[in-house]
Amino acid sequence: MEFDFSPIVDNWRFFANGLGVTLALSAASAVASLLAGLAIALLRLYGPAWLRPLWVFYIDSMRAIPVLVVLVWMYFAFPVLASVSIPPFWAALVALTLHIAAYAAEVVRAGIESVRPGQTRAALALGMSRAQLLRKVVLPQAIVRMLPAFGSILTLAIKDTAIATVIAVPELMHSAETVAGQTYRPAEIFTCVMLAYFCILFPVTRGIDRLYQRLAHLGRS
Amino acid sequence: MNLDWSVVWTHRQALTHGALLTIGLTVLTMLLAVPGGIVLAMMRLSHQPLLSRASLAFVEFFRNLPLVLVIYWVFYVLPMTTDVQLSPMSTAIVALVLNVSAYNAETFRAGINSIRKGQLEAALAMGMSRHQAMAKVVIPQAARRVLPVLASTWVSLFKDTSLVSVIAVADLAYSAMQVRAQTFRVLEMLTAMAVMYWLMGYPQAKLVDWIHRKYGVKE
Amino acid sequence: MNASSTAASRRHADQPTVLAYEGVRKLFGDFVALQGVDLQVHKGEVVCLIGPSGSGKSTLLRCTNALETLDGGRILVDGQALPANETEVRQVRRRMGMVFQSFELFPHKNALDNVAMGPVTVLGMPEAEARQKAMALLDKVGLAAKAQNFPANLSGGQQQRVAIARALAMNPEVMLFDEPTSALDPETVGEVLSVMQRLAQEGMTMVVVTHEMGFARRVADWVVVFEAGAIIEQGPPAQIFDNPKTERTRDFLGHLGWNG
pLDDT (tens digit, 0 to 9) for every residue of chain B, 219 residues total? Predict the structure, then answer.
């Protein structure tokens, strides 16, 4: 069994581009999901009551539908519906955000609900308005408690970008497939890409653990 | 934009077969990944450093990789490095089981660790062996804590089975996309695919919520 | 570093030694929890270990049934050193009953099954016989009516009494109590202490780590005062509480507001 890693070396620029797209798409969808999730959770908890079923329906639907299905629908079906064509990267970004924001919304809701009601009572007793209470007392504690889950949202985003290969987003997984298809060296290529993903994901998980341990005392009440 | 939804009905057999395969894959994977997870958790908790580290490495490895990559890797690399030739279906199962076992291992380990040390000590103080103490006192309590997490893992697995479509295993996703390719009815087929997943997945998600409410631990 | 014990006033001195601690040392990392403890417990004796928190009393108890391992010295049970091997230690554990501060009843079993669990699992007794025995023990601690209750439906004091019954089900030679009432509401402390007092009157050998000085004064045959991992004084309750021989014992009791 001889190994030939030259396809990787020869095509390093191609792989580097793929890696860049992976990182960009991961970061963009993670951030967008967190913001969207935050907005949806706040709307659900504090917004108009008649809209609540809508948010719940959205969140529960994303728990039922695989991200692959959302990706494929966004890239192939949506253009038919709206008569526009979307470049793969942006279709992937919208699809991933749509899917992950539902999870993020649940994380935010759980975080907010986990702050002890006594904290709310204490703040209101001081004369704070609801908005001040949220901004100054509840959210800061909730966000610390949510840090590990935020970390898992980031890792989820990174892993899900690999699925975007099915709609030909030129990220790392797609680069691997392309080169493997051309050079018939799948073992070396996929193994290296596997290590690459591990090297990206492992520090993120560990980093979030460490950060949480340093900050956990800020969220305890 | 002219739509023809009848294609969904015409190809209902392919779609139904795909849906059944999706469910079958989920069930089979979980049947294998639960014992797999238990074994890995026991290894991790054992006093032998070799077993413990091996389990840790396995779990960390598979939890830090995209599943779609694992599927590709098992499909392309395993036949080359070993002499094992697996059908796409078997490949899919291997990849899924490896992945879900790793998550289950963490679930079981956390469940067992969440049982207060005092319970184990009380059992040992009576003269029970470690083995008896685990089997009669710790694990029955841990099982209750583990159930809601396993239920969530189940639903994630159900969604993840869609990834086996990339190696042409005829699950719901693959079947729907094949019909799309044949009939060029993109919006109809992809929407039907989404709706079918929703119909199967939504009740499961609600069931998981119920399990969390019923078995969730309030310390 | 032990104050000399007044052997003459030790009532059970002529009884066989059930537990003997010789130079017992225990470390947790750099922290010396026990620094060379020498102590004897005779058959039928009630020995109370008192002292400030962290002084090593609970650690000594947990070393007795090998829940903690020693870093020096040895513990003799009926004249034989505690074995190192887990299987052999189990045999020794069967002869001791332990009651924990946090009760540690098994929440997934009702009171009756909690008490029967030891005989069934460890001694291989048939279930029916074990349940009968368990019922008798629950009756002895005054909880026959609660036999079917699960721990979640028992008060703290009730749970602890069930825990005592559970330990007694193994017919132990010696009962080890690790701060049995520290986690209880004041109203329920009394019910547990009276069960323990009855056990003492029936002649059970008991080693009790406690902060209940009234109990120690009334029920103990021998009181051992710990501080910083060593015994600073030991003697009959009359000596310790009414006429302590060392300054530090007086300080400790004074801090507790002990007025005799």
Answer: 678 888 889 999 999 999 999 999 999 999 999 999 999 998 998 888 999 999 999 999 999 999 999 999 999 888 877 777 788 999 999 999 999 999 999 999 989 888 888 999 999 999 999 888 988 998 888 888 899 999 999 999 999 999 999 999 999 999 999 999 999 989 999 999 999 999 999 999 999 999 988 887 653
For residue range C94-125, what is the model confidence (pLDDT) as tens digits?
Answer: 999 999 998 989 988 899 999 998 899 888 89
- Residue A159 has its nearest CB partner, among B66, B155, B166, at B66
pLDDT tens-digit readout, A60-82: 999 999 999 999 999 999 999 88
The span from the CA of C251 to the CA of C234, in Å, is 15
* CATH number of this structure's domain B7-215, picked from the four choices 3.40.50.2000, 3.40.50.300, 1.10.8.60, 1.10.3720.10: 1.10.3720.10
In order of A29, A97, A127, A146, B59, the CA distances from A153 in angstroms are: 10, 11, 36, 10, 19
The domain limits of chain A are: 10-219
| Subunits in contact with chain C (3 or more CB pairs closer than 8 Å) | B
Q: How far apart are CA C193 and CA C141, in angstroms?
A: 11
How many A×B Cβ pairs under 8 Å?
Answer: 121
C150 Cα to chain B: minimum distance (Å): 14
**C-beta atoms surrounding C250 within 10 Å:** 14
The interface pTM score, or ipTM, of the predicted complex is 0.89
pLDDT at site A6: 81
Task: List Cβ neighbours of B39 (8 Å cut-off, separation of 6 or more).
Answer: none
CA C250 to chain centre: 24
Q: Which residue shows structure tokens 């629908």?
A: A73
Cβ atoms of C124 and C178 within 8 Å: the answer is no
Within 150-169 of B, beta carbons closer than 8 Å to A belong to: 155, 159-163, 165-166
Interface of B with C (CB under 8 A): 116, 118-119, 121-130, 132, 136-137, 140-141, 144
Determine whether the interchain pair B68/A165 forms a contact, defined as Cβ–Cβ distance below 8 Å: yes
CA C126 to chain B, closest CA, distance in angstroms equals: 16
Q: What angle do CA C96, C102, C104 make, to 5 degrees?
A: 60
CA distance B218 to chain C (A): 12
- CATH match of A10-219 with 1.10.3720.10: yes
